[in-house]
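Supplementary Text 2. Reproducibility record for the structural model of the 331-residue chain.

All settings were left at their defaults, and a single model was retained for analysis rather than an ensemble. We include the record here because the model underlies the residue-level annotations in Supplementary Table 4.
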Amino acid sequence: MKTKQKIIFWLSIVLILLIILAYLFIRYNKQIETLSSLSDLKMKQKELEEQLAKLNQQKIQLENNVKNILEIVTKLQQNMNLQTLGQNTIKIKNMNQSLLQKQNEIKMIDVKIDKTSKEIEILKRIIAEPFDIIINDITNYPEGFVKPKKDSFIMNSIITGMPDVVSNPTKLELGNTETVIIANDSKTNTILVVSPANDSSFPTLFTIDIKYSGDINMWRLSTADKNRDFMPNYQYNNEIIESKDFSSKFLHNKSTYEIGNKNIKMANVNLGNKIMCVTTTGDVIDKNNNTYAKVEMSFKGMKIEFLNEKETISGIIIILSPKIGTNQLPE
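Retained model, structure tokens:
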């Protein structure tokens, strides 16, 4: 074969290999993108953890094989004499070839272990992310006024889907920062709910700060924009909704909430009969078209500040956008 033909031949081989690798890479990313719910993500994580355990077992077995081969080679070298020289030399050569093969297999498994470990870590961060949440009282109390008790609140989250995924409620003490784990996936929304606990109540004026405390490259908290393609059924902005109007205005899946005795219950939290619903940044309007609160976004979170002393609410709902659609697992 002429030199030019050899070059064309090997270039063709390389091109075919590149096409195959590109196809496998695209297919792999598509598999990740089609994970449609938290349960899918958890199932993927479980599969990867099982795969990692098998890889580690294979590595241990190969390392034991390498150890045995080295012991056999050492014994053959020690017992070599004129009578066994030729036979032992052949055995040692075969053993060394087997040793090289096992060592290469270990290197390949190490690459797979590293990749699988990274995938598991990213899936863990996707499935459940830490946020620092604090509720502060900013009411202008009269001089000398002493509050009789310290209020506390219940916060929880629910991922809407089939089925809905409900987290465990977290208790928040007024003025204390609490780290809350919030789950979110790439295909649907997460709903946060906040309500006073026991005999507590919301302060007249207060703020809620929610800041992501994990890897800033993995998550950005954002409320759902009613004009986005993934929110086609939302026809309202931030507003205060009473229980009698809730079903007609909160156009989310009815499986996410219950209505009984004029009270709304969502994610195992009783939200009462007058709920502030936040779907985007900007002002929250009360029934008299006055600004009750404002919602501001930052790179790592959001802040809700309550401005109107004339209105009271019994619970808060915050709709969060899907968030991992653009994130990819490592190559």
